[in-house]
Design goal:
Radius of gyration: 21 Å
Low-confidence stretches: none
Strand content: 15-25%
Structural class: alpha/beta
Bound molecules: (2R)-2,3-dihydroxypropanoic acid
Number of domains: 2
CATH topology of the largest domain: Rossmann fold
Helix content: 25-40%
Number of strands: 12
Distance between the termini: 26 Å
Shape: elongated
Mean pLDDT: 97
CATH architecture of the largest domain: 3-Layer(aba) Sandwich
Strand order of the largest sheet: 8-7-6-9-10-11-12
Length: 315
Amino acid sequence: MKYKVLITFNLFKEYVNKVKEFAEVELWDKETPPDKNWIIEHARDKDGLLVSLTNKIDKEIIDSSPNLKVISTLSVGYDHIDINYAKNRGIRIGYTPEVLTETTADLIFGIMMAVARRIVEGDRIVRNGEWKIPWTPDFLLGYDIHGKTMGIIGMGRIGRALVRRAKGFNMRVIYYSRTRKEDVDAEYVDLDTLLSQSDFVVLTVDLNPSTYHLINEERLRKMKRTAFLINGSRGKVVDEKALVKALEEKWIAGAALDVFEEEPISKDHPLLKFNNIVLTPHIGSATYDTRYKMAEIAVENLRRGLEGKPMIYEV
Ligand code: DGY
């Protein structure tokens, strides 16, 4: 029997074809995500949903789909899915961790270097014809990476991948997470110590009710004036209003963000006015190799879930 599957984002064609090998497929093939009504209307008779983090899968969508057995997401994060509600209905959830760990850590380390060494700012200056003097001792001075302290909040796979990179740069690494990890080559500290000692406060936590606006005004004020905030996890972990205030009043030296409270960030967002901030459009896992691996796993999770077999990665 062929299962019925709804794909709610523009999945690579070759992977749509793979789903067609075991299911009848309905597909959203535009780049902008579908609205909720479209999903509700098309999910009604489906056994499986293949979704991305741009599709909010809430109670109403789950309720509108009485046959639903599997939701497979092409992402490591699953805050866009009402997991508890789905699980109570016996729906299995697949996701794609591990394959994106190193790629995402590369990007986080990259934006951290970019902001501290003013790489993007320098590029803008060159392009805008603002580079007037060949060299002066005080032009575009930034901050060192090597020898500094990286404070990682959240110590999962990406946190560990960052520890390895930081050690290669001869950094001191401290971390805070709900539980102390015995096998991590970094010093466990409480959150206040991390905030007050780090030159780079790096966020790698999941978004859940306990991490929503974890970085708020009070915590930004605890950071060093020479420190940078780096976020490659989820935008809502940072209270952006407080971050704007921190940058305006120079409580911190700058920030590098790959994720935002609302994505895409609006073009008149107050964060855009600062030079000491690097902004990238949620591209942590965006390499050819990694996105194709994520697609492979998401499709395989879906197939195995529908066939009642253990998934590669199940929430
Ligand atoms: C995820 O997978 O959750 C990332 O944010 C995008 O790859």
